[in-house]
User: Fold Dihydrofolate reductase from Methylobacterium marchantiae.
Amino acid sequence: MIDVRCICAIGQRGQLGLNGQLPWEGNTDPLFVEDVTRFFALTMGHVLIAGPKTVASVPDFAFKDRTIDVIRSHEYPEEVLKRYPGRRIFVGGGITVWNVYAKYIQNWDITRLPYDGEADRWFDPAWLVGGALRG
Ligand SMILES: NC(=O)c1ccc[n+]([C@@H]2O[C@H](COP(=O)([O-])OP(=O)(O)OC[C@H]3O[C@@H](n4cnc5c(N)ncnc54)[C@H](OP(=O)(O)O)[C@@H]3O)[C@@H](O)[C@H]2O)c1
Assistant:
């Protein structure tokens, strides 16, 4: 079985993204900083696959110590996952990516942060059981 995982952070009501960034981007509260640090620690040395907007938001330093692959909607998920035999693959979003790849994810690591403001991208709890409600 391929080791396919997800680490993500959500706001109090499932907020995921805003204007192409994390909704709480720039928040220097230790809880938010710790969450980002933890994401980079846990994905270090592994593979991160994600859609173009999510990859565009990844800082340059992160490309040095993990394999980051921009995935596209014309690619078959099974073919994408087969590119990395023996590697741990994190599915990094965004929404339509998780809609399609949720069924392959065996481990969800979700941090619920103390943010309750605006968002234009939302977590779909159906992903946890391999599906998608919001499409
Ligand atoms: N809070 C968190 O942990 C977290 C994590 C990740 C992202 N985000 C946020 O989410 C937002 C970005 O996500 P997004 O959904 O807007 O854009 P995205 O990351 O570009 O992901 C969506 C794109 O993925 C591509 N894709 C690749 N494989 C696909 C497939 N099999 N089926 C469908 N689409 C596929 C599609 O692009 P093409 O059709 O052009 O190929 C689609 O438009 C940002 O605000 C970001 O900060 C938050």
